[in-house]
Amino acid sequence: MKDISEPRHSEPHLSESSGVRDFVFGFGDGINTSLGIAAGVGGADISSNLIILAAFVGMFTGAKAMAVQNYLAVKTHRELLKSEIAREEWEIENKPDVERKEIEDIYKAKGFSGKDLEIVVNKITSDKKVWLDTMLTEELKLNIDVLGNPLKSAFRMFGAFLLGGILPIIPFFFGHGYTPLIVAVGMSLTASFLVGSLKSRLAKTSIIKGGLEMAGLGTGIALLGFGIGTELANFGIIDV
Q: Which of 43, 60, 102, 112 could join 107 via S-S bond, C-beta 3.0 to 4.6 A?
């Protein structure tokens, strides 16, 4: 007889995805926010002290905003999933024949038939928790654990944002002009590439592609601020 543990097999592998998601998004947004501010203000040829101040304000404001938004997003998503779980529990209690038929159809599609199918269905439906878990993962493709805890996600996002955000600011403590900006870009590209590569390695996709994607897209967009700052200064909109 075929192994019936398949519906629950993927759970341990997916349970850590929320932490990876929070770190990657938080770190990427942090590094790009600070670099964008530093490049934009630096493009207007303003002193390093003002660049540091602007970047720090943007970094902490952005970190707080991202943490709050992540908390609300995860909390809302969990509430939606819990409502689906409650509905499925009600159907198991009040429409057991219909739900049993759905389990039967699921395992028929997996190749079970005859006595094997009957044993599998009887085994699953004899335990309401197993029955519910099977319906959630097989029919609805839901796994509430993948989302993570809203509060933990918020703190992870906040910390990752600050970690990424501080990197482009560091060179401006030691210099002025375009040199610290060039160093900041180099640091941002390197850090973004490493994080993108790590993300891709965990996802078992191309490490080089993942690294270049995160480094190129994120840093490239952040550097648009440099052109904006330069043009504002050239047009006299900003007095430097």
A: 112
Q: What span, in angstroms and rounded, lies between the C-alpha atoms of 200 and 230?
A: 35
pLDDT (tens digit per residue) in 11-21: 444 445 677 77
Task: DSSP letter for 224, please.
Answer: H
Given a cut of 80, whether residue 240 has pLDDT beyond it is no
Q: What tokens were used for 206?
A: 């191309």
pLDDT band for position 158 (cuts 50, 70, 90): very high
Q: Where are the beta strands (DSSP E) in 8-112?
A: none
226 CB-near residues (< 8 Å, 6+ apart):
39, 40, 42, 43, 181
Q: Are 29 and 219 in contact (CB under 8 A)?
A: no
87 by Cβ neighbours in 10 Å (0-12 / 13-18 / 19+) ranks as exposed
Tokens of residue 18, six digits: 């929320």
Under 8 Å CB-to-CB from 104, ≥6 apart: which residues? 117, 121
Cα–Cα distances in angstroms (integers) from residue 209 to residues 21, 25, 134, 177, in the given order: 18, 17, 36, 33
Alpha-carbon gap, residue 54 to 48, rounded angstroms: 10
What the block records as the tokens of 199 is 């993300």
φ, ψ for residue 177 (rounded to 5)? 90, -150
Sorted by sequence, the CB contacts under 8 Å of residue 10 that are 6+ apart come out as: 137, 143
Q: Which amino acid is at 199?
A: K
Q: How far is CA 148 from the centre of its chain?
A: 11
User: What's the pTM?
Assistant: 0.70
Amino acid identity, position 169: I
